[in-house]
Amino acid sequence: MTPHKPAHTPRPFMLSFDDGPLPRKTDAVLDALSRFRGEDGKPLRAGFFMIGDAPARFLAGRQYFAPYELWWRKGSMRRHPELVARALAEGHMIGNHTVHHVWARWPVYRDMDAVRSEIHGWEAHAEAAGWHPATAPRLFRAPYLLHTPTMTAAATELGYRIVGGQTVGDATPGNGLRAIEQQIRRILNTPDTQPALLIFHDIRPVTAHHLGTLLDRLQHEGHDLRHFSV
Ligand SMILES: [Zn+2]
């Protein structure tokens, strides 16, 4: 019997993590990543789209977060600069995910100044934690991937590159490891010569607990894990 051969080469993938940094969750993700190497054999580099200082209380977040938002316990570079410093020291890249994780469909974010101030507000916390604006790449991912014309225009004007990606479903309520794996397989089974850029959420327990296992399985199936690069 001939062994089963996939019709195409398994698609490579890169990793990104949104909405941190949170103690115990972001640390667990960084611990898991430290076992892996990129295509050049060097410690794997991932992208972390962090939040400057999201409101810690649900009601206080209502002016920023999406009406359907459930996970209001999001990251804060202001409260946890040591996690930002750790990610940078371990070779990862950090990107701008706004200071408050704003929902771009609120009318206020059709205003360029409001968006500029969300982007600048992030920079202040990032700089305080060791991000160097003069040398670091300027990467922007809009919260909820809502790259509206205003979001895109403001970020571009401030020298940022817009970074999309494909969500693995770890922020969907009730999704466990199995659902996330299925979603990743859907993404990676789409033939493409370019690596997929997966979007996880380091603040979600399912990701913090299972990332290492998941990466082991995907590599075992032949999917190359690549350094985050855009
Ligand atoms: Zn987000």
Report a brief summary of the structure.
This protein has 230 residues and is an alpha/beta fold. It is 31% helix and 11% strand.
Beta-strand percent range: 5-15%
Strand order, largest beta sheet: 3-2-1-7-6
**Which ligands occur here?**
zinc ion
At the fourth level of CATH, the homologous superfamily is: Glycoside hydrolase/deacetylase
Coarse structural class: alpha/beta
* Major beta-sheet overview: 5 strands, parallel
In DSSP terms, counting alpha (H) and pi (I) runs of 4 or more, how many helices? 6
Low-confidence parts lasting 5 or more residues at pLDDT below 50?
none
Shape: globular
Q: How would you describe this protein?
A:
- The protein has 230 residues and is an alpha/beta fold.
- It has a single domain, classed as Glycoside hydrolase/deacetylase (TIM Barrel), CATH 3.20.20.
- The protein has 6 helices and 7 strands.
- It has helices at residues 25-33, 81-89, 112-128, 149-157, 177-188, 205-220, and strands spanning 13-18, 47-50, 93-96, 139-140, 161-162, 166-167, 196-201.
- The radius of gyration is 18 Å and the shape is globular.
- Zinc ion is lined by residues 18-19, 97, 101, 143.
- It comes from Halothiobacillus neapolitanus (strain ATCC 23641 / DSM 15147 / CIP 104769 / NCIMB 8539 / c2).
- Residues 11-230 form the NodB homology domain.
- One of its GO terms (biological process) is carbohydrate metabolic process.
- This is Polysaccharide deacetylase.
- InterPro entries: Glyco_hydro/deAcase_b/a-brl, NODB_dom, Polysacc_deacetylase_ArnD.
